[in-house]
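Hello again, I could really use a second opinion on something today. I've dropped the whole record in just underneath, so have a look.
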Amino acid sequence: MWSIEGTALELTHNYGTEDPSFKGYHVGNQGNDGFGHVAFNTDDVYAACEKMETMGVTFQKKPNEGRMKGLAFAHDPDGYWVEIVKRSETGKIQNYFNFSQTMLRIKDPKKSIPFYEAMGMKVVRQKNYGDFSNYFLSSNCEGIDVEEILSDAEAKARIGQMFGPVLELTHNHGTEHDDAFHHYNGNEEERQGFGHIGFLVDDVYVACDNIRTMGYGFKKEPDGGSMKGLAFAYDPDGYLVEIIKRHGIEFGDLKVDKK
C-alpha cells in the first residue's frame, strides 16, 4: 500500500463503537468545522444514486434537488457527506466509482496553497464564486500542463476525467482578516471524526526538516513516541498531515546523526 501511485482512504475503527449506545462521530459541516466531504466520480450520477438508494443510502442532496443539478451528496453509514460527481467523459474509466476528492475549508489561501505546493501538489483548477473560492490541487499531474491557460469549463473537465483524487480547499472570503477565526480540525474533544490526510515521501526525516521551515509545527516528530519514522505535521489551519515513508515504515528505526 505504501508504494501505490493512487490514494487510499483510511478508515479507523475504534473497537466498541459498533455498540448501539455509541453516539457516533462528528461528521463535520457544522459551525466552524473544517472537514467537508469526500467525493467519488461516476459516469451517470442519477443512475448511481438510484442504485445507492435501493441499498438504503440516504442523501443530504439528491441530483435533481437544489440549484446545482446533476451532483449529489450521500450519507455514508457514519453520516459523513459523500459527493457524487459526473465524470467529464464517460466510458474511459472502468471503475463504476473512483475516489476523486477530499474537501477541507481553509482560512487563508495565501498560506495554505504554498504549504500544499511545498508538499508537491499543484493547483489544477480554481474558481471564485463571489463569497467563496475553491482550489483543486493534485499530486499526480503526469500528462497535465498546469501552466496551460484554460477556461474554468476546460479546467473542470480536466479534473473530471482524472482517475486520481484532488484535494479541494474551500476558502470563505473574509476569514483571513479575522484573527479570532479558526476551523476545527476534526480531532478536538467532542468533535472527533475526520482525522488527517497523509503524504508518502522517500525520506521522512528530510521531508520534516523542510516542513519545519514553514513554521506550523508538529503534533508528532519522526522520532517522537513509540512509532519511529513517521510524523504528523500541522498545516496552516491546524489540520494534521501524516508524513509516511514510501514503501513502508521501518518501525523502531532511529535517526542517527553522522559525526
